Automatic annotation (TrEMBL):
Listed SUPFAM superfamilies: RNI-like
Keywords: GTPase activation, Kinase, Leucine-rich repeat, Repeat, Signal, Transferase
Record-given protein name: Kinase domain protein
The organism of origin for this protein: Tetrahymena thermophila (strain SB210)
InterPro entries given in the database record: LRR_dom_sf, RanGap
GO molecular function, one term: GTPase activator activity
Matching PANTHER family: RAN GTPASE-ACTIVATING PROTEIN 1 (PTHR24113)
Gene Ontology BP, a term: nucleocytoplasmic transport
Length: 294
């Protein structure tokens, strides 16, 4: 495979998808990584490793060393399902991102089992913050034991992305960003004035409290061009009546642009007054053509 790829030096777009439970070893990944160095013209690359391949950080390092030579890349997607890259693996990805200044479209999905933790999120954030041309950023770090600091670092990183139009962030599953992590994220979100689509999945375990939720809602108010909002928050997060009222107020500010809204507030107590406040905001969204409330 590595040898064959090497001879395709004119490739502009490549997707490498390693299916479930393959037996590629370190040497195999090293050959693949070397082959990636032959694609100087490539603009779009997808690397996916499905469940149970036992991809580790050493193997991922070979791939990242290949990817960082693709300096003309504008679109990169890295999807690592249940494998074992850990914090070090995330560091390799973060380092390679720093070399890819032309990226405008980036997807990073690292699923459970990889356990990148806050230090891994920090390394990714360090890479992401250098990508000032990004317009589309999708990050899914479901169940990676990311705590307060990891979320704060991600918040810092997105602050720099002034051109960002589409942002998807999924921190569901076993992550625990807490109040301060949510506040850190909100500080980044409020700088994203060009945003068109925002999807924020806080899941059910992050334990953010009313103050964190309030700040996140307020950050929406600076997104004057926001057309689509998808917000998911559940159970072990506390919104309170105050949070729901703020959400209503913040939505109201988006009345000229918002056309699509998906709100999932699942098993969070917002009370009667919270519901009223939320409804008060919703009814001013005259441009809304698509709405799901759960
Ligand atoms: C990289 O992109 C630049 C600008 O689009 C182009 O001039 C250059 O030829 C490209 N390099 C390669 C190796 O394709
Ligand atoms: C961005 O990348 C994703 C994932 O590779 C792809 O599906 C999407 O079409 C790309 N979008 C643009 C605008 O290139
Ligand atoms: C933005 O949101 C709209 C409405 O939900 C959707 O149709 C569109 O595909 C989204 N665009 C991107 C680039 O995700």
């Amino acid at each position: 495979m590595g040898k064959c790829l090497k001879s395709l030096s004119n490739l502009l777009s490549l997707s490498l998808i390693i299916g479930r439970a393959n037996q590629i070893d370190d040497v195999g990944y090293q050959r693949l990584g070397d082959a990636l160095k032959s694609f100087q013209k490539i603009t779009s690359f997808t690397f996916s490793v499905q469940n149970d391949n036992l991809l580790n950080s050493e193997s991922l390092k070979f791939i990242c060393e290949g990817v960082e030579t693709m300096t003309n890349l504008t679109s990169l997607s890295i999807n690592i399902e249940a494998n074992i890259i850990y914090t070090e693996g995330a560091q390799h990805i973060g380092n390679c991102l720093k070399k890819l200044k032309n990226l405008n479209n980036l997807t990073i999905q690292i699923l459970h089992g990889n356990c990148i933790s806050s230090s891994g999120a920090e390394a990714l954030a360090e890479g992401i913050q250098t990508l000032v041309n990004l317009e589309n950023l999708q990050i899914c770090l479901q169940t990676n034991y990311i705590g307060v600091v990891g979320a704060q670092n991600l918040g810092q990183a997105i602050k720099n992305l002034k051109k960002l139009k589409y942002f998807f962030l999924k921190l569901n599953g076993e992550n625990q960003i807490e109040e301060d992590g949510a506040i850190g994220l909100s500080q980044g979100l409020k700088k994203l004035e060009e945003l068109r689509n925002l999807s924020l999945n806080i899941g059910l375990n992050n334990q953010i409290k009313t103050e964190g939720f309030l700040k996140i809602c307020k950050s929406f108010e600076s997104m004057e061009k926001l057309q689509s909002l998808n917000l998911f928050i559940a159970k072990k997060n506390i919104i309170g009546q105050e949070g729901a009222i703020q959400l209503g107020k913040s939505l109201k500010q988006l009345y000229t642009s918002l056309s699509s809204l998906q709100l999932t507030l699942k098993d969070v107590e917002i009370g009667f007054e919270g519901m009223e406040g939320l409804m008060d905001g919703l009814k001013s969204l005259k441009q809304l053509t698509y709405f799901i409330f759960y």
